[in-house]
Amino acid sequence: MSDNILREDEVLKIDNLSMHFGGLKAVDQLSFTIRKNEIFGLIGPNGAGKTTVFNCITQFYKPTAGNVVFRNNKDDVQSLIGVKVHDVIRKGLVRTFQNVELIPELSLIDNVMIGAHIEFKAGLVSQFLKLPNARREERAIREKAEKSLAFMGIADLKDQQAGGQPYGVRKKVEIARTLMCDPKLIILDEPAAGLNDTETMQLAENIRRIRDEYDCTILLVEHDMRLVMSICDRICAISFGKFLALGTPAEIQANAQVQEAYLGEKEAEAEKDMEAKEPAKSVVEQFKDNLLGKEQ
Questions:
Q1: Residue 10 pLDDT more than 60?
Q2: Lowest CB count within 10 Å: 14, 263, 269, 284, which one?
């Protein structure tokens, strides 16, 4: 295992990370670093291993090999390998999921308050009897939850049940819940899935605001390339669990290996030939436009 060392401007390092399921190498010797206050994208075709990387970072999966080094919310640098899943959040590393994980019978504010469970100090008896210390804690956490919901623009819905809300609102609730943990790094797993264009634009603005106002770093997995290319500072592209490329949105957009991973080698070559013969916009050009967030 590598040394647990980060540069002063880095918050996370993935070092030769591998995750094998029997003979399947879901992640294969992957390495990259994420800088402080960066919006960092992780992209790749379906089945590339993106969510597996997330699960290894958060220790939901125990990696076969490699290291995950994190600068926690106390500014201490440590390896996350071997840390219990429920303790990772205490380090300031939180995540959302592809499928919204809310309790439908609870109100929006109660769902958000669950995100602050690590802050509860009062014991079970104090909470059951509603002793003064328990009431003070709950009051403070409720105020924090109201602030998170207001930040996401849904404070007026706080007392409504989560199960009856539109998908876009439930997505906002899940992100609001991550803000309850004073995060150092937020991992967003396909946050734009199921959103319409207007909601996706609002999401992009919210991600930038979270980075700026909560002074944290964002790691984003997303299939909406226009969203990724419009908000990410740097992007790492992977395919079949292996590293493909790392760079700015423009560099990733122009990378031949990334184009091949998305389009396939034969189609990419055929489109290059078509580009040379026809002035009309080819599939490769449309793909590049999509990566850069241009209108078709």
A1: yes
A2: 269
Q: How far apart are the first and last CA of the chain?
A: 46
Separation between Cα atoms, residue 70 and residue 78, nearest integer Å: 6
Residues 192 and 177 both lie in one domain:
no
Do residues 192 and 67 both lie within one domain?
yes
Structure tokens at 155: 């404070």
The model's pLDDT over 112-121, given as tens digits with 9 standing for 90+, comes to: 998 887 666 6
Concatenated DSSP letters of 196-226: -HHHHHHHHHHHHHHHHHTT-EEEEE-S-HH
Q: What is the pLDDT of residue 280?
A: 43
Angle between helices 265-277 and 283-292 (to 10 degrees): 100
Q: What is the 3-state secondary structure (H, E, C) of 212-277?
A: HHCCCEEEEECCCHHHHHHHCCEEEEEECCEEEEEECHHHHHCCHHHHHHHHCHHHHHHHHHHHHH
Range of the domain at 108: 103-181
- Taking only the tens place, the pLDDT of each residue in 39-89 is 999 999 888 899 999 999 999 999 999 999 999 988 999 999 999 988 998
pLDDT at 4 (0 to 100) = 81
Residue 14, SS3 per DSSP: strand
**Beta bridge partner(s), residue 69:** 13, 79
Residue 187 and residue 82 in one domain: yes
Q: Find the helix or strand (DSSP H, E) in which 32 lies.
A: strand 24-35
**Does residue 162 sit in the same domain as residue 190?**
no
pLDDT confidence bin for 290, thresholds 50/70/90:
low
Whether this prediction's pTM lies above 0.90 is answered by: no
